[in-house]
User: Fold this.
Amino acid sequence: MNRANPRCIVVGAGGISGAWFPPLLEEKVEIAAIVDLRKDAAEARAKQYGLDCLCTDDLDLALRTTAPDFAVDLTVPEAHADVTVACLQGGAHVIGEKPMAASMDQARRMVAASERTGKLYMVSQSRRWDRKHDSIRRTLASGAVGDLTTLCCDFFIGAHFGGFRDEMDSPLILDMAIHHFDLVRFLTGLDAEWVYCHEFNPKGSWYRGDVAAVCVFGMTGGAVFSYRGSWCSEGFHTSWNGDWRIVGTNGTLLYQGDADPRVQRVAGDEGFHRPLEEVAPVPSDLEATGMHGALLEMLRFLREGVRPQTECHDNIRSLAMVFSALESSKVDGPVRVKI
Ligand SMILES: NC(=O)c1ccc[n+]([C@@H]2O[C@H](COP(=O)([O-])OP(=O)(O)OC[C@H]3O[C@@H](n4cnc5c(N)ncnc54)[C@H](O)[C@@H]3O)[C@@H](O)[C@H]2O)c1
Assistant:
């Protein structure tokens, strides 16, 4: 990158773009264009943030006339593949919102485009850039609970969205579980090898499709990840991050209700219940959180060539957990997680 400040275009000026403009401006990224099928939405965002930039519904024009270092793809999941591939082919690196794509075929096409063009494509999984999550990852990596054996995440929320989620086939697995599936990979450093998923639509549900699921994943190294989730569950909501219990050969890490994570581990080798001690988690030193944290990884790549953790070859493994779970539910049996 030759410019003092990197130049980007933002594609998609809907709801989530409101979380991206502030960190882009704070990091002094030049926003050369805002592209949206609804040109008025692009213009409204430019006005809101006082930007004198091209506002258009023509992505090719924006790429040609502004020659950005990178594009920020904030479109709907069904558009991610076309938009991201066009940007990569137009010479820009891409940072895109989760989920990577609306199908594995689309995701593979995006990875192939990144390889063909030599341009980087990374996905923003905002929950990775969270100080508690970063602390859990460091704590588990330090061996505080020993080798990981049993990973559990519960997600129970009564969510009355109205709109497209009420009509989707698999709203929980497709629209929400990607966060928890990516999180288990981030927290533990383990990958999913197989899955058995049962989706269902609980009695009294206000959704048309299956909005609840129980999944069992076999992870690398033999650990088992059990995931129970529902978006149609009234009372005693869990955190949106899920409530976690992570068990290792020597202890347990508990992360519930977004409270600080706690670790208990064995402190002696006698007794029916072994004596336990509580130890402090390893602190996080994350510079920035959420979308800002993701953006910093793109900027570090541009300046120093450091590859972001959610580069597409890695993130497709999280997406594969989603689509393999759906396949398992459909065939009503365990399936390999295929990338
Ligand atoms: N990280 C998070 O926690 C989080 C939260 C909300 C949304 N998201 C993700 O952000 C993305 C966008 O969500 P949103 O809530 O902003 O949606 P939205 O519907 O509010 O906005 C999407 C915008 O993209 C535009 N668009 C669609 N196709 C396009 C195309 N081909 N070219 C140009 N513009 C196009 C639409 O006109 C719309 O303005 C989704 O992938 C969603 O999953 C992430």
